[in-house]
Amino acid sequence: MKKIVVSSALSALLVLPAMAFEVYNNDDVKVDVYGSIRGYVGYGESGKAGADAGYLIGIQNNSQFGVKFQKDKFKANVEWGAVEDGVDGTKQSTGWRQYWGSYTTSAGTFLFGKTNTPTIDNGFTNDFFNNDNGSQGFGGVATGSRKIQIQYNVAGLSLALVEDKTGAGRNGTQTSPNQESPRIAASYSINDEKGKPTFKVAATYKYYNSATIDTSVPVPAGTSAYHAWIGFKPTFGGSFLSIMAHYGKNGHLYKEQSTRYSYGGYQHNDGLDGTLGLDAQRAGVRVEFGSKLSEDMSVIVGAGYQATFGGQGQKGNKDLGQKDSVIQGYSAFIQLPYKVSSNFTFAPQVSYYQTAEANSKSALAGFKETGVIAAARIKWDF
Q: For the chain, where are the alpha helices, taking DSSP H only?
């Protein structure tokens, strides 16, 4: 029997939660169901003088329920999310988070469908605010970016052609056919024996050979968008250190980079992306450290920084003595995850976020938003 080496990017998709239920197993056919219910409760406050504070309670958008199917070398996964666009990219259809099939050969694994792109952060950050994406805009990149794609995986390498916006082809009534080229995404990662990443380098590039089909974000033909990042997460004993850094240009167009700020709410605001405009460059770094305090409790601390510069909306008027704008984002947090049982985790977290204009003589001078949040996540996996 030939041994197939599966990419760690794909293996992350195939790993089931510890409490997954096997509902069928007959020779080479296997079916499992799994789910994760994630909620939060707490308190948040804006740093603006006189701003109201408020209580936070809700279900995380990325709460999920799914089924995995395997027959010999064929695998498939369908997963429903609490709040998710459908496979057609609209909110009117069923919110499938995962909707893909794969086939493994001696040369690697080929996958088609909706799943996470190879370039997401799948294990280097732990800030669970903003749907486990609390680090984006504060030193991190997207922790989830589920798009329709063709993906090839072998020996830690993952390559994909990604459709960022689902469009219509040429037909009798279609006056604006989809001529937007797909995005190229690639990553190489190394996982530990539990399937968790210890090293990853990823990069993606998109050239808009035609104007974007997403009319809400006008992008002229000839625009390039890209970013790259690297992460390293060594472990020693019951502790870990996670370090990651990223750089890109126009990464907000496909939403894997962003410039965000916090009002003290559970979600972060990405409204600055449109204001800063095309050609905005983003560079950031993030560091986290975690250690076990006991068999059931751990502590995680982290901090991050990101600078956004060069955007068309950041250019200063030289006639008025203005400088170009630089937006800086900072964050820090402490988290105390407590494993109540094998499938139930309670994790209190306190976070601080600040996004501010760095140049006092720029057109955006005076912009500053600060948020402080103290909340706990209640997470039940099955």
A: 8-14, 129-132, 272-276
Between the ranges 40-49, 90-99, 137-146, where is the mean pLDDT highest? 137-146
Q: Provide the token pair at 352.
A: 């601080």
pLDDT at 108 over 80: yes
Which has the higher per-residue pLDDT, 50 or 246? 246
Which residue's entry shows tokens 């089924």?
67
CA angle at 64 for the pair 233 and 35, rounded to the nearest 5° = 85
Nearest-CA neighbor of 54 among 312, 275, 371?
371
Q: Are 268 and 260 in contact (CB under 8 A)?
A: yes
2 pLDDT above the threshold of 90? no
Distance CA(92)–CA(367), nearest Å, equals 36
What are the pLDDT digits (tens) for 153-185? 999 999 999 998 876 665 555 556 667 789 999
**Nearest in space to 336 (alpha carbons), one of 380, 300, 286:** 300
Domains of the chain in sequence order: 39-381 (2.40.160.10)
Question: What is the reported pLDDT for 368?
Answer: 92
80 SS3 class: strand
Helix, strand or coil, per DSSP, at residue 127: coil
Considering just the CA atoms, what is the radius of gyration of the chain in Å? 21
Residues sharing a CB contact under 8 Å with residue 208, sequence separation 6 or more, in sequence order: 180, 181, 219, 220, 221, 222, 223, 224, 225
Residue 267: C-alpha distances to residues 230, 263, 264 (Å): 25, 9, 8
Cα(68)–Cα(372) distance, integer angstroms: 39
* Token duo for residue 366: 């005076």
- The position carrying tokens 């937007």 is 180
Question: Quick one: which of 373, 368, 277 has its CA closest to 328?
Answer: 368
| DSSP state string for 166-192 | ----S-SS-SS---PPPEEEEEEEEE-
Q: Within a 10 A sphere around the Cβ of 220, how many other Cβ atoms?
A: 10
Q: At 204, is the secondary structure helix, strand, or coil?
A: strand
Output b/e per residue, 81-113; b: 16+ Cβ within 10 A. bbebbebebeeeeebbbbbbebebeeebbbbeb
pTM of the model: 0.89
Return the pLDDT at 289.
Answer: 98
